[in-house]
Specification:
With 351 residues, the protein is an alpha+beta fold. It has 2 domains: 136 residues; 179 residues, Jelly Rolls (Sandwich). It has 7 helices and 15 strands. A hairpin with a 2-residue loop joins strand 13 and strand 14.
């Protein structure tokens, strides 16, 4: 069992293959001077082999690790870059180790062959360094998996929610970079039609109500698809919505990379299922589906960076999909069905 302060096994695994492979490269450099030592050659081959196997464990533990931590804002493109370079490095050392095993087995590491093998070994070391640097940024710069920072973020979130209750301005806070935050307060129903571009159905009703000491927006209907879009064009996005769908029978979507009603990317909540996909020229391309808990109030979140897309419910990773990156676009929500959607917060940020 892991202690509470370690959210996953990735930190316990990742340092061993790095140390083994770097040591293998150092021993290779020593062999340039002492190439006649057979035990040193055998040691290098063992280090490359064990280190490459360790990279496999590190890579897959890292894929699992990203589902156990909260990745916010500027950390989103860093975690996707870390994952991409980890895969490149794994493939590189897998092929390089296979080559070293072949040359060792066939006794080919003579003459110019062995010095030539040092060049890709140094390249691999550089790839290890860059991959590790991205991982270090996640922990030491962005605080990913650092429990105290997570607790501070929760406190900040709570204070911001309380502050929103006293704000006279009910409209979303749209920033210069196109990102925006809308904490629902009294008057949000009037701000909806003033601050959002409304596409699709017009047969809906909006009002604000209070529940458990907090104000929320209620949107009733529509039976036809309704889009509510605002903000500027964003590429890397981190979006979330705190919603209650217990009185709604239909589909609710967080929309990003929106250019029109036939071209956008989304996460879609339908009953107990979360879908992630892209609408391209009116054709719905579902990239993945996952099961969710039908809670009274839940925070659903979507992140997109390059070809990596994540879908969350209440900080739990539900989906991780990949596809071509769309052109930057606007953000917002869409819904279709009968009944009432309740909303406390919608936010889309970028790095």
């Amino acid at each position: 069992m892991l202690p509470d302060w370690i959210p996953n096994i990735h930190p316990l695994i990742v340092h061993f293959p790095i140390a083994l492979l770097v040591t293998a490269v150092l021993f290779d450099l020593i062999r340039l001077r002492f190439n006649q030592l057979n035990w040193l050659q055998n040691t290098v081959i063992a280090l490359y082999s064990i280190g490459s196997i360790g990279l496999i464990a590190a890579f897959f533990s890292g894929r699992q690790a990203v589902e156990t931590v909260t990745v916010l804002g500027e950390a989103v493109p860093v975690v996707t870059s870390h994952e991409d370079w980890a895969l490149y490095t794994l493939i590189f050392f897998g092929l390089f180790t296979a080559l070293r095993l072949y040359t060792w087995w066939k006794d080919l590491e003579k003459g110019w062959v062995f010095p030539a093998l040092i060049i890709p070994a140094l390249i691999g070391t550089g790839m290890l360094w860059y991959t590790g640097e991205q991982g270090a940024k996640l922990v030491y710069k962005h605080g990913v998996a650092v429990g105290e920072i997570d607790r501070l973020n929760e406190q900040i979130e709570s204070l911001e929610q309380r502050l929103a209750e006293f704000r006279e301005d009910a409209a979303p806070d749209i920033r210069e970079d196109g990102s925006w935050t809308w904490r629902i307060s009294a008057g949000a129903d009037q701000a909806l039609t003033e601050s959002f571009s409304i596409e699709g159905a017009d047969n809906f009703q909006a009002s604000t109500e209070r529940e458990d000491g907090r104000t929320h927006l209620e949107i009733t209907g529509p039976e036809e698809e309704l889009f509510m879009i605002t903000g500027g064009d964003l590429s890397v996005i981190d979006g979330r919505a705190e919603i209650n769908l217990e009185d709604f029978d239909g589909e609710f979507m967080l929309i990003h990379h929106y250019t029109d009603t036939e071209n956008y990317q989304y996460i879609r909540i339908t009953g107990s299922e979360l879908q992630q996909g892209q609408m391209l020229n009116g054709s719905d391309n579902i990239l993945g589906t996952g099961q969710i808990e039908e809670e009274r109030w839940s925070t659903f979140r979507v992140t997109a960076s390059g070809p990596h897309y994540y879908g969350y419910q209440d900080q739990q990773t539900i989906l991780h999909t990949h596809n071509d990156e769309l052109e930057p676009g606007q953000t917002g929500i869409a819904l279709k069905g009968s009944g009432t959607v309740k909303i406390r917060l919608i936010e889309f940020s970028t790095n």
